[in-house]
Design a protein that fits this description.
Largest sheet: 7 strands, mixed
Structural class: alpha/beta
Order of helices and strands: EEHEHEHEEHEEHEHHEHEEHHHHHH
Strand order of the largest sheet: 4-3-2-5-9-7-10
Radius of gyration: 19 Å
CATH superfamily of the largest domain: Spore Coat Polysaccharide Biosynthesis Protein SpsA, Chain A
Strand content: 5-15%
Shape: globular
CATH topology of the largest domain: Spore Coat Polysaccharide Biosynthesis Protein SpsA, Chain A
CATH architecture of the largest domain: Alpha-Beta Complex
Number of strands: 12
Number of domains: 2
Helix content: 40-55%
Distance between the termini: 55 Å
Length: 328
């Protein structure tokens, strides 16, 4: 079983002068197997002032019924995540801060408190939040290893925002991301024009929480929970290659519009879609190469997956070009 061991020097957190309301938005579609644990983790938060908003995209299972056990604020909105998140974070949220999570995510009991304290301490307007992928099989552990390199990089995306700024920029670009993904990279670039986005430290002894009710579940999914860990556990299903590649291919449908919006020479675009950055630099910068060398077993699996994702992306792009040519 993997143990969370990475620590960061966080300095001293200053106490908030008030307890601002934080609006936590969950987007769902047929998530009856995951939503309860997500909501339990919200209920267990140490921050005293949270509103929970669930925005469901016409689920046909018990998602809405389960959500209603935890919050009265359950809404229906579609067609995709950008529209759902905007509806929750702009139209329904009342908080000074907003955070969005997926239904298969579990947040540590100190997360909201840590976010409020850190965003104020850093005078920032948004935060990247550390994330750990759960799962026991080999490729789930590979995915966990890979994701650990992305925190706070151009491959990451902010989840916690000063709501006034999020509203000012109009939230996620719904017209651009009707299908596919890239909306998290896009909102980072838009919000960054108005202030600082920083990474939340992933480990803070001052905010340690012991006897967390979800700790046993986390450990059944391959991770020994550390009371000082401050972040998100992503409770993805155990890894299967074909569904994973299918999901990545679908996400790629949003990339062309995103690239065209900012231009191929934009520094972030060049890193996010650069073979050099995505296959090498992001895994070696800032001394991370030591971690890469320390686990050759996981490194090999990670590069195998990156290669497969690259092939899937090229195949999808070629298919779309072929379809466009046939339509002419």
């Amino acid at each position: 079983m993997d143990t969370f061991t990475t620590t960061y020097s966080t300095g001293e957190f200053t106490n908030a002068t008030a307890n601002p309301l934080v609006s936590l938005v969950i987007t769902t579609r047929n998530e009856e197997n995951n939503i309860r644990n997500c909501l339990k983790s919200i209920k267990a938060q140490s921050w005293p002032n949270i509103e929970t908003i669930v925005v469901d995209n016409n689920s046909s299972d018990r998602t809405r019924e389960i959500a209603a056990e935890y919050t009265l604020k359950v809404y229906t909105k579609g067609p995709e995540r950008s529209a759902q998140r905007n509806y929750g974070m702009i139209d329904q949220a009342k908080g000074e801060y907003v955070i969005y999570v997926d239904a298969d995510m579990i947040i540590t009991p100190n997360l909201v408190k840590a976010c409020v304290l850190h965003i104020r301490k850093m005078n920032a307007i948004a935060l990247h939040i550390p994330e750990i992928v759960l799962g026991k099989n080999y490729f789930s552990r590979v995915r966990r290893f890979e994701r650990s390199f992305y925190n706070g990089t151009p491959v990451d995306g902010a989840r916690f925002f000063h709501r006034q700024t999020f509203v000012k920029v109009g939230g996620f670009d719904e017209s651009l991301f009707v299908k596919g993904s890239g909306e998290d990279w896009d909102i980072d670039k838009v919000v960054r024009k108005f202030g600082l986005i920083v990474l939340l430290p992933c480990c803070n002894p001052q905010l340690a929480v012991h006897n967390w009710p979800l700790q046993d579940f986390i450990e059944t999914r391959g991770i020994r929970h550390h009371p000082e860990y401050t972040g998100i556990y992503h409770n993805e299903a155990e890894f299967l290659l074909l569904p994973y590649l299918k999901k990545k291919s679908y996400y790629s449908l949003g990339f062309d519009g995103y690239i065209n919006k900012w231009g191929k020479e934009d520094p972030d675009i060049r890193r996010q879609f650069s073979l050099k950055y995505r296959f090498w630099t992001v895994f070696t910068e800032d001394g991370k190469w030591r971690r890469l060398l320390s686990r050759p077993d996981l490194t090999a699996g990670m590069y195998f997956l990156r290669f497969c994702v690259g092939l899937a992306f090229l195949f999808k792009k070629a298919s779309l070009v072929g379809m466009e040519a046939s339509a002419r």
